[in-house]
Amino acid sequence: MEKYFLGFKDEIPKYLQIAKHIEKLINAKKIREGERLPSIRALAKLLEVNTVTIVNAYKQLQQKGYAVQKIGSGTYAKGKEENRNFLKEYSSIYKKVSGGLVKDYIDFTGETTCSEFFPVDTFKNVLNKVLDRDGADAFTYQNALGYEGLRESIKNHFWEKKIDSENIVIVSGAQQGIDIVSKSLINVNDNIAVEKPTYSGALNVFKGRRANIFEVDMLKDGVDTVSFRKILKKNKINCFYVMSYFQNPTGSTYSIEKKREILNLAEEYDFYILEDDYLSELIFDDNIKYESFKSLDINDRVIYVKSFSKIFLPGIRMGYLIPPYKFSERIQNSKINTDRTTSSLMQRALDMYIKEGYWKSHMKNLSEAYRDRYKFMKKNIKDVLGDKVEFNSPGGGLHFYLKISDKINMNCLELFNKCKKEKVIITPGVLFYKNSIDGEKYFRLGFSQTDIDKIERGIKIIDKLLK
Q1: What integer pLDDT is reported at residue 83 of this predicted model?
Q2: How many independent structural domains does the chain possess?
Q3: Which of 416, 408, 406 is nearest to 444 (CA)?
Q4: CB 168 within 8 A of CB 151
Q5: What's the start-to-end Cα distance of the chain, in Å?
Q6: In this structure, is residue 437 part of a structural domain?
Q7: Same domain, 227 and 312
Q8: Pairing of strands 191-196, 212-219
Q9: What are the residue boundaries of the HTH gntR-type domain, all occurrences included (predicted)?
C-alpha cells in the first residue's frame, strides 16, 4: 500500500492528484494490468481523505481509460498504453493478412464470405447487361436515397412490399449506416445502450459521438432484460444498438419472445432500437426462424440496418437502412452530408442480380457451403479443445465465441501473441468491450476464410498452445 502515498498540493483538488498518481503508477507498471485497486474505504483511510474524494478519483481514472469498475468486485487497473499498442499490433497483422499474405496464415478473423464462393462470371454478365441497357447513365449520380430500382427490389424481394421504398436509404455498408444514424440521432452525453460484448465498429462510432455507453450482458437468447430494465429505470436511454442474429461476437440470436419484450420496453421507456441485421441469411439450425425486430415493430421504434457486403461481396460496399418515419428526413439529410451517393453502377447491378433470381440461388449455395464448415468447426472445437474452452453453438453465422477455461492461466492477448508466432490469427475478446479487461478470457474464431484443412490445423495449434 505504500506506493499509494503522495504529498498533496493545496492548489489542485485532491481527487485529481490521487487519480494522476495512480495513473503514473499504472504507466510505470508499478500497478499491473488487471490489479485490484484498494477499496474506497481503505484508500480514504490511508490518505486521510473522505470516501467521496476516492470515489471521484476512481471515476476520473475510469473516464480516462485507466481503470474499470466491476460491480460487486471493486475497481481494477487498466494499462491504457498497453491496450493502445495491442490495437496497433492487431491492426497491423490484420492488414498483412488482408493485403495478400493470407496464404501464409490460418486466418480465423474473417467477418465476410470468402471470395472463392462469389459467382464472378454471373456478376460480370450482369454488369455487362446493365452497361448495355443504361450506357453512360449507369455512372451518373443517383437520387441521394439510392437507385430507385434497387430500392423497389429490396421492398419486393426482402420485405414482401410491406415497406415503403421511399423510406429505404441505400448506404455504403452497415458501418456507414450506423455512422449516419449516430450523426442524426446521438449528441454529446446522450445515453446509448449496447450489448455486452458488441461489435467494435459500432462501439467506436458511439464513443466518437461522446455518448454515455451502458452495456447490457448478452445471454444465449439476447440481452438480460432484467438488467436492461434496471438501466432504463435509472437513465434516459435514447437508443439501443442490437444485432438480432448471430451477434458479433457472441453468436447469440434473439428469441421472438425477447424481441417482443424489448420492443415493449422501447415503447414504455421511449427509446429507439438500432437493429443491425447481421448474417441472418446463414441459418443452419432448423429451430431458428427469421423474424427481425423491424418486422415485429408496430410502433415504428426500429431503425433497421442491413449490409450486403458481409454476405455478398465486400468490395461493393453496399447496404441499406430503414428509419422510423419520424426520423426519415433527418437521416436522409445526414446521408447526403456524409456521402452524396453510393456507386450507381453497383446499385444497378445489384438490382438486376436480385431481380433475375441470382441472389436467391447464391444465398442457397453459400448456406450449403458454410453449413459444412460450421459443423466441422463445431465438432473440432468440442473434440480437440474439449474442456479447455467454453462456448455456445450459434446455430448459424460465420464464427464461434470461446471462453478460455478458468483453470488455464492465460488471457486472450497472450493466446493471440502465441498464435501469431504460429501464423494463426484469432480475434481477442478485449476488442468487443467498452472496458477491455472484461474480455480478457474470450476470443473469436471465424471460419469464413478458412477451409476444412486449415480449420483442423488451426484448432490443433490452439490446443497445443492452451495446454
Answers
A1: 53
A2: 3
A3: 416
A4: yes
A5: 35
A6: yes
A7: yes
A8: parallel
A9: 12-80
